[in-house]
Amino acid sequence: MKSLWFPTAIALALTACQAKQSEPSTDNAVQAEQAATAGAGANTDTTHWQCAETRLSLRFDAAAKQAELSLPGSALTLPQAPSASGARYADERGNEFWSKGSQATLTLQGQPPVECTQADLPSPWAQAEARGLAFRGIGTEPGWLIEVGSGAAPALHAELDYGERIVDVANAEAFAGGYRGSTGDGVAVELRIRRETCSDGMSDQSYPAAIALTVGERSYRGCGRYLGQ
């Protein structure tokens, strides 16, 4: 009986050892996932720029060899282009962004070049898109802005009269021409959006939508765009 038990025990021990060696290491799996994530992140790089009165964010995709520019009035995708020095991105319509260190030149279709300097903060349009907002609009005299969330009943947030008045609608109703709702204290708010070229009156920047905001008895006009388009 004793002689039968000893070889059987050895066989069981060897089988358990082989099974343990064949199991994938949890630590190795985590390390592989982290390496893959790091590799994916290394393919993109985001920088921020101040070009005259315009703040923009540029996201370079090394895998696609192109740059995505988040401008106030639009989002541009420019393929990487040959250059004697620096990093240059350009399309066939005359849009170009050419950076050399912390300096750059932005040329938009039909407009003269604008000198740019690298900035620390992203553009408010890039920030709004990163927060998942659906629409953003601005106006002047007095300065104001409005941001619209996503979903069937989005939140509306407006900063009016140079930020002196804040208006929030928790759940707005979307209709064919925009959004409407009421603040917590019952003030009616309506944002109408028309898809047409719009200028903010303060710069050469054009936007794809003209907007009219009514808050109670006050009316505001400005420009904006749907984000992610």
Automatic annotation (TrEMBL):
Protein name: Membrane-bound inhibitor of C-type lysozyme
Keyword Membrane: yes
Domain (C-type lysozyme inhibitor) ranges: 49-113
Gene3D superfamilies named in the record: 2.40.128.200
Signal peptide range: none
Biological source species: Pseudoxanthomonas wuyuanensis
Keywords: Lipoprotein, Membrane, Palmitate, Signal
Pfam families: MliC
